Amino acid sequence: MNFEKWLVQVGKSEKTAKNYSQAIGKSISKWAQEAGLIDVSLVFLNSATQFRELIDAIKNLETFKESNSKGNGMYSAALVQFYQYLSDVGSNELEED
Question: What is the C-alpha separation between 28 and 57, in angstroms, rounded?
């Protein structure tokens, strides 16, 4: 299940789900790549542990801080939800094995 569908499943509106999904897949991934934190889009991560190691570095990027402030915390919320998604999907995959 992709991030956007998961967000809707856990109760987010379709608009919020789309905004968070685009924030992770486009904006935040771009900023992290430009800063040399990652080589590929965040959407290709499948480990909550791996993502958790990136969160503080992403939050410290000046572009992230500015955009998050203008967006009333939307980018921070997207990071939290993406971490929850990776945790949830990862635990579901373990249960299926």
Answer: 11
